[in-house]
Amino acid sequence: MPHMGDLVAEMLAASGVEVVFGMPGGQTTALHDGMSRRSNRIRHVLMRDERNAAYAADAYARLTGKPGVCDVTVGPGANLLPAGLLEALNASIPMVAIVGELPLDWLQLRDKGIASQGFDQLSFFKTCSKESWLVPSVAALPDILRTAFRVATSPRPGPVVVIVPHDIFDAEWDGVTPAAMTDDRTMRAPYLRSGAPAAAIAEAAALIARAERPALVCGGGVHGSDAAGTVTDFADRLNGLAVTSLSGKGAVPETRPYAAGVLNPLGSWAAIELIQEADLVIWCGSKVSQNTGMNWTLPRPDQATITIDCDPLEHGRTFRPTVPLLGDVREIMTALGAALGAQPARADWVARIAEVKAEGDRVKAGEMAAATRPVQPPRVMAELAKRLGEEDIVVSDASFAAGWISGYIPATKPGRRFLFARGQGGLGYSVPGAIGAAATLPGRRVVTVAGDGAFSYTVGELATQAQFNQRIVNVVINNGRLGWIQLWQEIFFKNVQSAMLEAPGVTPGFAAAAQALGLRGFYVEDSEEIGAALDAAFAHDGPSVVEVRVDDRATPIHSFKRRMREGADKPRPRPGTVYKLRDWKVSPDLPGPASGEGVGNAAVEKAPVE
């Protein structure tokens, strides 16, 4: 006799869900039984850790626009989900998490785990999701699941949680499909699109026409609205500056002459420099977070502003916009483009953009060509960029990895092919995110970049990559420590002890660990070895790890570079200080630690140098 797990599996498949990421438990076995009988329509990817199930579902959703679906069981499975849910909540990523629960008539026994693994899951998930529901009956289950997809995909998208008690999952299903099992409009975000009033569009267009130095700042909302092509068309006509947040990278091709890269302390010096000179800033699908707003020194008081966002609460949250445009990014940018008319040439502004970009490119070129030992991370990114195809997906971990990617690997076409964990900015996203990306796009290559600290979080998921033979190249930028923490402590506190990830003579070998888990592993200590190692990894029809030992003083943060250049004898600023960057230059070569001679990597392949 079919059970309610069959109904849930049928509804997921009918809602366009091809893959579910998670880990089963006794309370959710009925769901897995139902999916196993529909394996031609929906499949399950077994993760090694429930946190990573949410990250994989998040990456799936970013690339498809569909809600990413993950499943966990009650208690210890459930309490590992919040890291991924918060990432999706803050980044506005649609997700549906299906969570097991104790039987309904046991709920009074959940406190303090009297009934094994029990706790108040509904209250717990209310704090880290867009919405959460506890299914109260068999009859209510179909409608709650339909509602979950509607809420997850409606503006502003986000993660929702459906908590299903054990006895409801196991209850018999009569096989009768509900008349309105799914709504095809909620299979993809955004579920609904709206536009700003014509008068507001005209006001914004007039403001743009009057601007002498307009700038466009594109956030993750551009990709959430599937608006990169529309935004690029707009930027092509603006005769102004275009920059992006980390999450917005790819909103416009960074090969365009007006595109100055990522606006972030980890990002492009040219973007940071030029945005301060704009007289009008158009914030497009950006919540003007602490990092994109450069510690909220942007927008400057003398800058006019236009905000474009589907969430009414974002307009005016940190500054009063001159013209707020409430609605879907794609709809508004289409209307604004139609109202734009011929734009002034803005020759002086165009020339200034070219001048500053040229200076930044000159400095970057020197960094990317550096043939030092220890290796400089920009050299790794340069070699990686040479080998990436336009359809390859790059998944960044948090911390310095985001800066190395954003500053040194250009987005060459409109669209989302760079995934950054910026909703929470937590370590450990890249490896499980790549699993979600690879499951979404079978046959396409996925590349991850992570520091050794971040990579340590999810080493176990390499076994999942190997199990499914996914085409993933994991690049580990190994400096033997938590790089951001080390520099922060050196600059502000003169103490680096808590940032160390190694001890004398003890060097974890990530490439060797990868080989033990069924992947190819390559270890690199010399700049001239990087290309051959990447060639071998890219040629492998399966997952691999390329571990590169890098300078432990290297940083993509421009204010940190300047501080190191000034020297340790200078007065120490308070944490949070915003540096003036007009005289920024590349930091001098600084000595790094001994390489460790590849300790822990004795069995790792050393790719031949051509």
Overall description:
It is a single chain. 55% of the residues are buried. The chain is built from 22 helices and 18 strands. β5, α6 and β6 (159-165) form a beta-alpha-beta unit. With 610 residues, it is of the alpha/beta class. The chain has a six-stranded parallel sheet, with helices on both faces. Strands 9-8-7-10-11-12 form a six-stranded parallel sheet, sandwiched between helices. Strands 14-13-15-16-18-17 form a six-stranded parallel sheet, sandwiched between helices. α3 (50-64) packs parallel to α4 and α10 runs parallel beside α12 (329-340). The model is unreliable at 568-603 (pLDDT under 50).
What's the SSE blueprint?
Blueprint (H helix, E strand, L loop, with lengths): L3 H11 L4 E4 L6 H8 L6 E4 L3 H15 L3 E5 L9 H10 L3 E7 L19 H6 L4 E4 L6 H13 L5 E7 H5 L27 H13 L3 E5 L1 H5 L3 H11 L2 E4 L14 E4 L6 H7 L4 E5 L19 E6 L13 E4 L2 H12 L6 H23 L7 H11 L5 E4 L3 H9 L9 E3 L9 H11 L5 E6 H6 L4 H6 L4 E7 L4 H10 L17 H7 L3 E5 L5 H10 L4 E6 L8 H9 L44
Parallel strand pairs: 1-2, 1-3, 3-4, 4-6, 5-6, 7-8, 7-10, 8-9, 10-11, 11-12, 13-14, 13-15, 15-16, 16-18, 17-18
Helix pairs in contact: 1-2, 3-4, 3-16, 8-12, 10-12, 11-13, 13-14, 14-21
Widest sheet: strand ordering: 2-1-3-4-6-5
- Secondary structure: helix percent: 25-40%
Which strand-content bin applies to the residues?
5-15%
- As for the number of domains, it is 3
SSE-based structural type: alpha/beta
Rg for CA atoms:
25 Å
Enter the CATH topology name of the largest domain. Answer: Rossmann fold
Beta-strand segment tally: 18
Overall mean confidence score, pLDDT = 89
Q: Which CATH architecture of the largest domain is right?
A: 3-Layer(aba) Sandwich
Question: Could you give a short account of the major beta sheet?
Answer: 6 strands, parallel
Q: Count of DSSP helices?
A: 22
* N→C terminal distance: 63 Å
Coarse shape: globular
Outline the low-pLDDT stretches.
Answer: 568-603
Domain Thiamine pyrophosphate enzyme N-terminal TPP-binding: 4-122
Family: Belongs to the TPP enzyme family.
Keywords: Thiamine pyrophosphate, Transferase
GO molecular function: acetolactate synthase activity; flavin adenine dinucleotide binding; magnesium ion binding; thiamine pyrophosphate binding
